[in-house]
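Standup notes
- DV: blocked on the single-chain target, sequence here:
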Amino acid sequence: MESVELSQRDREILRDVIETFLIRGEPVSSRRVAKDKNHDLSAASIRNSMADLEDLGLLKQPHTSAGRVPTAQGYHFFIDSLMKEETPSAISRRLIDETIGHATGDQDELGTTVSQLLSELSSQIGIVVTPDLGQTVLRRLEFVPLTGSRVLCVTASSNGFVDHKVVELDDRIERDELVRVSNYLTENFAGLTLSQIRERLIELMNDARAQMDELMNRAVVMAEKGLDLELAPQLVVQGTESLLDQPELSDLTRVRRLLETFTDRAKVVTLLNRCIDGEGVRVFIGEESDLTSELDFSLIIKQYAAPGSGSGTVALFGPSRMAYSRLIPLVDYLGARLSAALETTF
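- DV (later): unblocked, structure below
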């Protein structure tokens, strides 16, 4: 966004218009600003300033007879230059710390827990994208007997995530044999990424020349069944219903578009990845992202680090009329705490 120089009076009026709009959700008139805010100005003077702010692309008028609302450029000016960030409350910080601290190493459960918490604290849609598992390094693999021919495959990775998968075998295998298979796979595959393991398993299963003894053959078959080799990042979305009462979604067409937004989950992950650029929180509004443009929504997004498997993403998604002063620090804190927890624990 190009730098815009504003007088102190115009800065105050822009701030007041945006803050009023965020609260009331309707176009703001000069009379409303004069009545609600402590300005030693007439409504006519405020109206002239608002017209100047519109000429600069910071405000717009939805209808000729209506007041004005912020543009994406106006929101960014507000966020960068006028807004006072609100540190997450002690209650919110404690809830985040306790939730992340008590979460298991299961990646799907962690994504669901964090996205749900983010939605509950913000009244927006909470989004988590898990790291690319292809770069996850295997630390340990263990098979635990269940009933009959069913066994539980427990996979621990170097980034601390633990995956559990129930596997149905062709016949029952004794505990001692499961221990030997587990030890064999851990000794031969520990330290490799899941991408490398998948390639190696395919190679072994397809190579007719491979002379595998009974233990190796059984281990390869069980690893192929037990390891979750769907390596693409997983998208977890929670809280869509929290937006349905907002005036921006009073139109059923917009509700349908919202529900359709996350249908193609792989596409959403791709669009979210395009929004990530280095550390810190980024904000995309309206036409600035393919994900936000159709609904004229906003996206507040931050990366979190997962040792041994790159990074994931936490984000908030909702109507552009959102409480940026509270929600930007919230996303920043949650992302930072998630990175710290994964780094410290694992």
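- Follow-up: The beta strands are 59-60, 69-70, 125-129, 138-145, 150-157, 162-168, 235-238, 282-285, 297-305, 311-319.
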